[in-house]
Known about the structure:
- The protein is mainly alpha-helical.
- The protein has 2 domains: 2-87, no CATH class; 91-151, no CATH class.
- The chain is built from 5 helices and 2 strands.
- The relative contact order is 0.16.
Amino acid sequence: MRFAALVLGGTLVLLAAACGGSPTSAAPPASGVAAFSSCMRSHGVPTFPGPAPGGLLPKRTPQQLGVSSAELDAADRACIHFAPNAGKPSAAQVAAYRTTMLRYARCVRSHGVPKMPDPDNRGHLDVGPGSDVDVNSPQFEAAYNACRKDLSP
């Protein structure tokens, strides 16, 4: 299992109809996390979350959203132009994410999982099958429970 979370960042105004508005609307649709989220909801993913504090959107699986992978992919393709930087994290966001994951990895090591690796340069942790970290062990589970607070941005 790879511990990786793709986080979309940025904050802009929330639009009532982010995917285009009415034809008589005076203001063009804005881009940003709020517009992306609204667009996703209007394109068949009604439970897509809005921005969390700080303007971040956590990645959600199709199952969590109650849609198929194909439905989520179609909505994403229709709305990606609203996402800041076309949905790719900025260098600053990657650095912040890596810092968060580094803090988490250090915490896990301090709670009894000495082989927990540091994240790579993108912030990804390679743990689970094929690695030296058994994510199903009682030690990892206890460390995760003690350290998951460090995963918040």
